Amino acid sequence: MAKLQAKYSQEKEYLQAVQEVLESIEDVYNQHPEFEKAKIVERLVEPDRIFTFRVTWIDDKGEVQTNLGYRVQFNSAIGPYKGGLRFHKAVTPSMLKFLGFEQTFKNALTTLPMGGAKGGSDFDPVGKSDAEIMRFCQAFMLELWKCIGPDQDIPAGDVGVGGREIGFLYGMYKKLAREYNTGVLTGKGATWGGSILRPEATGFGALYFTQHLLHKAGKDIQGKTVALSGFGNVAWGAATKAKQLGAKVIAISGPDGVCQIPDGITDEMIDYMLVMRASNRNKVEDMAVKFPELAKFTPGKKSWSVKCDIALPCAFQNELNGDDAKELIANGTWCCCEVSNMGCTPEAIHTFQSNGILFAPGKAVNAGGVATSGLEMTQNASHISWSAQEVDDKLHFIMQSIHEACVKYGTQPDGHIDYVKGANIAGFMKVATAMLEQGII
Ligand code: GLU
After folding, report:
1. Does ligand 1 lie within 6 Å of residue 83's CB atom?
2. Engineered SS bond to 315: which of 172, 206, 229, 288, CB 3.0-4.6 Å?
3. Neighbours of 16 (CB within 10 A)
4. For all residues of the chain together, what is the average pLDDT?
């Protein structure tokens, strides 16, 4: 860790993600001298390769714009590179390295054979028209297509990249590669190779995981209040399933503030989240404007200021800090499942764990998204399409398996379950064993 800190002192998010994993696996690592001999950790913390490219496109005013694009192929020990693309103004190589590193362990937890990757651009979708989004996606693919393939590297969505963007990206890929294998990207439209339930999968899977965690702790989600952050694809899926399971979603949020929904979110409001995301306005206030009787907007506040039983960060890394965790606990929150990637700061995780709050990390909780991407790849490779029921059953089974792996590796001598350790050790053991068996490469 000290060596990495000296070498990558500017890459705060990457260092944070690595530190969490290395602390979790320390004891297990020390029990396996063969890992040390093969320098597994030194190899595992470095991406296999990073592609960086310029993306130039023309905006609606006719002006030339230039952004940077990246693909971080992190680890291929257990399968081809797999992970999303993030379009956000704050994207840097450090952010994508942390996400690719996390993805490697998350994908290992899914039970499916997928390595870890991440990519994206500092392109800011906020305020962009559909035509601008299309031209950017096409320009981005002009470079990316050489790096990817259905058996090499399979990108998908992430923050700022949903079904619309995947459509534009795939259209350009086809033209360039003259290859019609839809398995090169996941999160596609349902009529051209996309898996039923892929849009819902991250949020649905997160709620299935939460159910298992609560059940193990002798609790039930029925009737509990849930505060979640964001209003994008992940928050939408989480709100949908939370409501179906009988919980009451009383807060959603955006960069502009929080919307409190004291009587619980309605189906119409959940549908409206999709409209808000597609508008590219990035304002949660729009919910309160549309439903003034049901939702109250407070600018500048987070969902963590709202009294709730369960907190579900669904937006961005480090969106819930130590002070937020303290505020939640003071308001009676007793469970936090991280749905965003690294949504909680180390201080927040420490605060939750030392106060006996049920806490589970993103790489376990949100793995249903990439797992269903894996199911999409399977359907594409065999030229079939499963029903919603079939996909949902498989997603259920995978989330249950991930929960069991966390329990297996995370149960402490005093009987309590450390889900952070459990997820990290389970993912690490699978990747490290594969690396060992494949020799020094
Ligand atoms: N971006 C999602 C994640 O963080 C999904 C990736 C995928 O489906 O490949 O896991």
Report:
1. yes
2. 229
3. 16
4. 98
